[in-house]
Amino acid sequence: MFDSKVGIEHDRINVGEEDELRLQGFTNSLWKTIIVGITIVATGGMMAILLLLRPAIRIRLTKRRCTLDKAQILVLKDKYGDEFVEQMFIMPNLSYRYFMHKKIKYIWNDEYKHFRKLKGLDQEKCSVLYSQVEGASSSEAAKKLNLFGRNSIDIEVLPIWRLTFNEV
C-alpha cells in the first residue's frame, strides 16, 4: 500500500465497492525531472523504457507528492494492485476540479476534502424528480451541460465510396 507521510494526504473512493481506489496526488517538480533526465542519458535510454512501461513509477520519480486539493496528476491503485495515472482537469467557469477514470467523472468536494463520483438523475429518488417538473432554468441547464457533457452518441458514417474501397 501507500506510505503515509505527515501532511501528505491519500484518499479512498468507492469504499466497500468493487471499484474501490486509493489516490495519491502529485504536482510538478523541476529538480526531480532534471535528475531523471540526467539518469535517462546516463543509462543510454534504458530508464526511459522502464518509465514508458510503468507510468506510475514515472510520476513518482518526476513529480512530488502533494495534497489532493493541489494535485495536478493522480496515481490510483485498485484493490488488485493495478495502478492508473489520471490527469486532473479544472473547469474555471464552474470552479470545480475533476478527473476521469474508466469513463466515470470524479469531482472534488471542497467541503469534505475528497472526490465523489458524479451521479446523474437516474440515482435520484422519484420525489426529487417530481419536484423538478417545471424544468431547469437556462443557467442551470448550462451548468449541467458543462458538468455532465452532451447526452449523445456520435457515430461516424463512412461515405459509400470508402465502404466499397474497404470491401475490395
UniProtKB/TrEMBL annotation:
Enzyme Commission (EC) number: 7.2.2.-
Catalysis: reaction(s): ATP + H2O = ADP + phosphate + H(+)
Residue stretches spanning the membrane: 30-53
Domain of life of the native organism: Eukaryota
Chief location of this protein within or outside the cell: membrane
Record-level GO BP terms: intracellular calcium ion homeostasis
CC annotations in GO: membrane
Keyword 4Fe-4S: no
Pfam families: P5-ATPase
Domain (P5B-type ATPase N-terminal) ranges: 17-89
DNA damage in keyword set: no
GO MF term list: ATP binding; ATPase-coupled monoatomic cation transmembrane transporter activity; metal ion binding; P-type transmembrane transporter activity; polyamine transmembrane transporter activity
InterPro entries: P-type_TPase_V, P5A-ATPase_N
Keyword vocabulary terms for this entry: ATP-binding, Magnesium, Membrane, Metal-binding, Nucleotide-binding, Phosphoprotein, Translocase, Transmembrane, Transmembrane helix
UniProt membrane topology term: Multi-pass membrane protein
Compartments reported by the entry: Membrane
Family: Belongs to the cation transport ATPase (P-type) (TC 3.A.3) family. Type V subfamily.
Protein name: Cation-transporting ATPase
